[in-house]
Every structure is written in structure tokens, then in C-alpha cells.
Specification:
This protein is 67% helix and 0% strand. It has one domain. By secondary structure, it is an all-alpha fold. The chain contains four helices and no strands.
């Protein structure tokens, strides 16, 4: 009985793989494969390696600059402490309402 179950499961998996291969690569002249992102990237990389594809260098845009201000850690801790004190006071006074 167990050999029959193993044979059936192997046959089912093989049939599923064969059907998916057929529909992905063969059916409609490989439409899904030809339009897949993976193939497009592979073709572009192969073109760069062969030298037939031009590499356009990207220039960083200056319009998206982010200004970072570094504050001392003591100021950050003071802000956190003050926020906790305010939250505690609000919680305490909310009991009387």
C-alpha cells in the first residue's frame, strides 16, 4: 500500500511540474517567461556583459537632500523624561474628571 501511495504522489508532483513548465515556457510562445521581470533583468545584465547595452550613469538629485540635526543625548533624555512626567500628570488628573 505504501509503494502505491509513494508512486501516486511522485506522479502527481511530476505531472504538476510538467504542466506548470508547459504553461510558463511553451504555451503562447512563452508569453509569461518572455515578459517576466527576471528575464528582463537577465537580458539587461547579459547585454552589459557583452557590451551591447549602454550604461547610463545616474546623477544624484540635490532636491531630495535631508538635513540631519544631531542633538546631544542629554537633550533627548530630557525630552523623554518631560513627556513621561506630562503623561503621568495627565493620567493622575484624569481621575477627578
Amino acid at each position: 500500500m505504501s509503494k502505491l501511495i509513494k508512486l501516486t504522489s511522485i506522479t502527481a508532483v511530476s505531472s504538476t511540474l510538467a504542466a506548470s513548465y508547459y504553461f510558463y515556457f511553451v504555451d503562447r510562445d512563452g508569453f509569461h517567461y518572455q515578459n517576466s521581470q527576471w528575464k528582463k533583468i537577465g537580458d539587461k545584465v547579459q547585454g552589459i556583459i557583452d557590451g551591447s547595452e549602454n550604461i547610463n550613469p545616474s546623477t544624484p538629485s540635490n532636491s531630495n537632500q535631508v538635513i540631519v540635526v544631531k542633538r546631544p543625548m542629554t537633550e533627548t533624555m530630557k525630552d523623554l523624561w518631560n513627556e513621561q512626567i506630562r503623561n503621568t500628570a495627565n493620567w493622575f488628573y484624569s481621575w477627578g474628571k
